[in-house]
Every structure is written in C-alpha cells, then in structure tokens.
Amino acid sequence: MTDPTHRLKAGTLWPTLLERSAHACEHQAILSIPTEPEVIEQNGVLFQVRIIKALAVKSLANSANSKHNPFLPYDPDLFVADLSSTHVALLNKFNVVDHHLLIVTRSFEPQDALLTRDDCAALLIGLSEIDGLAFYNAGRTAGASQRHKHLQLIPLSAFPDSHVPIEQLLRSARINGPVGTVPGLPFVHAYAHMDPTWLDQSSNAAASLLSRYHQLLQAVGLPPSYNLLVTRQWLLLVPRSQEFFEGISINALGFAGALLVKDHAQLETLRKKGPMVALRHVTLPPYS
Ligand code: AMP
Known about the structure:
The protein is an alpha+beta fold. Helices cover 27% and strands 25% of the residues. It is built from eight helices and 15 strands. It has helices at 13-26, 56-65, 117-129, 167-170, 205-219, 252-256, 264-273, 275-281, and strands at residues 35-42, 45-52, 79-82, 87-91, 101-105, 132-138, 150-155, 174-176, 179-181, 190-193, 226-230, 234-239, 244-245, 248-249, 258-261. A hairpin with a 3-residue loop joins strand 11 (226-230) and strand 12. The radius of gyration is 18 Å and the shape is globular. The structure holds adenosine monophosphate (AMP). The site of adenosine monophosphate (AMP) has 16 residues, from loops. Residues 63, 70, 75, 78, 90, 92-94, 102, 137, 143-146, 150, 251 line the site of adenosine monophosphate.
C-alpha cells in the first residue's frame, strides 16, 4: 500500500519548486549552465538551439563523467518534494532552463529499464501539477548521462512563447487506433494523443498511461534505446541508433525541437546540415 506520508499534496508542486529553487541558488547547490539562444528553421519547425557559454562546458563534462550516483544519496539542497512512495522530485543541478525537475526512483533502477506503473504515476503527478514536457532518455544511446532511473519535467515556459517547437508538425499526426505517426518526421517514431482524464490521477490513470507506452514501444519494434516525450496533449516515442550527430549529444529535448551545442562551430554544423538531418542521423530510417 502507498505510504501516505510520501504523497504529494495537490497544488503544491509548483510553489514548492519555486521555493526550493531559491533555496538551492542561495546555497549554491545549483550550477546553472549559461547559454545563448539561437533559432534555426527547418521543415516549418523553429528549432531552438542553445550554445553553452565557454566556461560552462567543463562543469557539464565533469557531471557526465562522474562515477558516483548523484541521486543516491541526493543532495538535500536539491530536494523538491516526495511525489510518491517510490519517487522523489529533485532539482537538476546543472540546469540549462529554470525549474528543471528530475523525477527519480528512491531505490536504484537502471536508466535503460522499461518504465513501470510507478514511473507513470509519478510522471502524471508531475504533469498534472506543472504544465510542461516530461521526458525519458532510455539509456546512454538516447542521451542519458546518469545510470539511476530518472524521468524529467520542464515547464512550458522553458520554450519560446511557451510552445514545444515540434508541435508545429504534430498537428498533422495521423492516428489509426491508439497509435499513429507524424508525416513530417523523417525517422521511425510513434505518436499518440494523451487522454486528459489521466491527469486527474484516478486510480487507473497510471496503468492506462503504461499501456499506451507499451503500445508505442510495440509500434516501433520494442527498441532497446529510445526517447519518450509526454505533454498534457500528446506522447511521442523515438527509437535511437546513436547518441551523437557530429559531436552534438542529442536527447529527448532534440525531438521536442530544442538542441544544445557546445560552441559556435557546432551551431554552424547544425545550420549547414539542418537540425532535422541531425535528428535523422541518430534515429532509424522510416520503413519504406
Ligand atoms: P540525463 O543527462 O538525461 O541523464 O539527465 C540527468 C541530469 O542530471 C542532467 O541534466 C544533469 O545535469 C543532472 N545532474 C547531474 N548530477 C547531478 C546531481 N548531483 N544532482 C542533481 N542533478 C544532477
């Protein structure tokens, strides 16, 4: 049975997140990565590209290479809230956007493991409290830097005009049954509508989301590595073939239309080749 002491009180996550962000900044527990924003348009999508300012590249590399598990134990200054008996919400220590939440399992589970009903329940709590983009980078190839299972949630305010850039294409999604595809995406993927009733956290909402996730996985052949993106309106799952395009690490945010590069040379590569080409390079070619 769920331990009630670990259940989040409805309506408290966003104010708690603001309060804990201020606390973490005051205690220098957060090392925000400063970036410059750019926009590159391709296939009607205004890709948001952030260029990391030179001095921050090193701290990001150190975080990715660190051998210890940063989530067990986690830094108490980064704690935000108990979401459930199985998951906590933490602040991302090296955040690029404000109020970036990590939804972390209390006990160790590997990052490439399948999502569980408890993961789905925690994701739905996060998404019903904060209108944003939740995502899961399943394993290193999908861009994960940490081995301990974590989902992530960033508020819509992290995107220009509070819109996920790729949504421009998702409007033309073709649904046949529970799962469909998006004509403008030139790689294997599976798309589904989100059922808004799942956000009311009824007792079977997590099981329903888990079942939709399984349908998405099955639709693309149960890949070992993939990115899952979930908003209040839609879900997108993209199998991965590799992490990098020309030295640029791509995770789930890439498929939302937001990319992070280390310098202007990488920005120029993206401009020249096109962000959609970068996404195609790290995924699987569409079935013919
Ligand atoms: P990913 O790279 O997708 O696996 O997400 C893991 C996130 O954890 C990264 O965005 C890191 O910035 C963040 N991170 C790394 N070390 C810590 C830490 N000690 N506490 C909190 N977050 C961390």
